[in-house]
Amino acid sequence: MSIPITLTVNGVTQTIQLDDPRVTLLDLLRERLELTGTKKGCDRGQCGACTVIVDGRRVNSCLALAISHDGADLLTIEGVAQGDRLHPVQEAFIAHDGLQCGFCTPGQIMSAIGLIQEGHAGDDPERVREGMSGNLCRCGAYQGITEAVLEAQNAIGTASRRKVA
Amino acid sequence: MKTFDYVRPATVHEAVAAATEPGAAYLAAGTNLLDLMKGGISRPDRLVDISRLPGLNRIEDVADGSVRIGALVRNADLAHDRAFAERFPAVAEALLSGASAQLRNAATVGGNLLQRTRCAYFYDVASACNKRDPGSGCDARGGDNRLHAILGWSESCIATHPSDFCVPLVALDAVVEVEGPVGRRDIPLEAFHRLPGDRPDRESALEPGEMIIALRLPAEAARFAAHARYLKVRERTSYAFAVVSAAAALRFEGNTIAEARLAVGGVALKPWRAREAEEILAGAPVNNDIFRRAATAALSGAKPSGDNGFKIELARRIVVRALALAAAGTPKRMPALPASPFAAISGDVIHA
């Protein structure tokens, strides 16, 4: 059985022959498209390591069937930097030591990008922690992650204000 | 995961026809179903993907004053819909206290109603479970059962319903619209989830092939907007199911409670509407004595199903706290930690 689906991944539209309806977006990215930046942690929607942006919303790619997402637009960690220029969230994670082992980091960064786009947290660290609670960090880098998200949000806000002016 | 046929119908009518076959299951976002399929708990032969059916993702005002929420509206979209959250703040608070931002972005309204219990013995296919495998027994009895049911349970099953969303919904008389092989019908949410009895495998009032089309909140439900809260005790600050929870909604005439709505979560296999408690509150002044009497009534009939007697008093206290905070008024802005019972609130009324 082969089912063709079309996906736009990091700006590139491609047709993919799915050989099995059970394939999740996570397994498709990692095993078929060789985009291994997105991590498989629990594979059950509990840890957030697999977070990607689908049609503008952060979701757990481990709990999304690829076949059900025919036509979707995906942004993964591989697509957030522009050439050698890191995304402001990536820069802020480095500046604030928002990681230790790094395994949860792609998911943390994609989740943070989603949280900033959603725009509900404001500059309140408590709201940032609540909004990031779907991303577990075994190393416990939460303090740095919270600071990084707040700084990145500020940087993105400043940049977009500059663009408007 | 067992393999399956995948069909993506274009209309509700086609979906119902495809799902009436034995072994078929509806797929919306799949945030619960895929988890269950990965664990071998659900083993459908056919997935009927309803996630793109047209017309089911709207929040609409109906002429009779009710609000109709399409079954495919995402949890996050409903919670952040300003007009909806202003009218039904306890529902928005419950939604935002459930799961994680990623899951709320995907999970649908219909799927939330149909999510399965998180009983660990239901999830562990090596354990006996009358819900998963009728007649096999219940390993939760005598097992690790401190979070299990204290109301409405049976010897067959002591699981709880995990939804936060359903708790204020049942308090506010929500109605479920379903469509099936014999047409469309309404089911009051209170009658939608079944208590276990001797058939815990039969979880809802849905007949084979029936699917949820929408959820309606009646016009009267918005009368409580100024005094409505959902509170939830969790074992960690965020991203956890309720140990116990309560939705409280009050309507005042002067300083007197004219009308009250109350439901308790995490205590039974369905969201537990507490009508006796509502009657005690109607016409009463605001004080902790009344709240405590209401809480006692809400939990009357509660008994431990195992090592969980503490949940009875914990549930009474969350009821008192929810009533006190509802009486103090719906916060102008959604709290930073939605449904947290630990938020600092000024005023004496909090000290239950």
Explain what the structure shows.
The complex is a heterodimer of chains A (165) and B (352). With 165 residues, chain A is an alpha+beta fold. Chain A has helices at residues 25-32, 88-95, 105-118, 125-131, 142-164; strands at 3-9, 12-18, 51-54, 57-60, 73-75. Chain A has a five-stranded mixed sheet, covered by helices on one side. Among the domains of chain B are: 5-52, Uridine Diphospho-n-acetylenolpyruvylglucosamine Reductase, domain 2 (2-Layer Sandwich); 224-350, Enolase-like, domain 1 (2-Layer Sandwich). Chain B is built from twelve helices and twelve strands. In chain B, strand 6 (175-180) and strand 7 form a beta hairpin. Chain B is an alpha+beta fold and 352 residues long. A five-stranded antiparallel sheet of chain B has the order 4-5-8-6-7. A four-stranded antiparallel sheet of chain B has the order 9-10-11-12. A three-stranded parallel sheet of chain B has the order 1-3-2, covered by helices on one side. Chains A and B meet through strand 4, helix 3 and helix 4 of A and helix 2 and helix 6 of B.
| Chain oligomer state | heterodimer
The CATH homology group name of the largest domain in chain A: Beta-grasp domain
What is the gyration radius of chain B calculated from CA atoms? 20 Å
CATH architecture label name of the domain at 224-350 in chain B: 2-Layer Sandwich
CATH superfamily of the domain at 224-350 in chain B: CO dehydrogenase flavoprotein, C-terminal domain
Structural class of chain B: alpha+beta
> What percent of residues of chain A adopt helix (DSSP H or I)?
25-40%
Strand order of the largest sheet of chain B: 4-5-8-6-7
Task: Give the rounded overall mean pLDDT of chain B.
Answer: 96
Helix content of chain B: 25-40%
Count of extended strands of chain B: 12
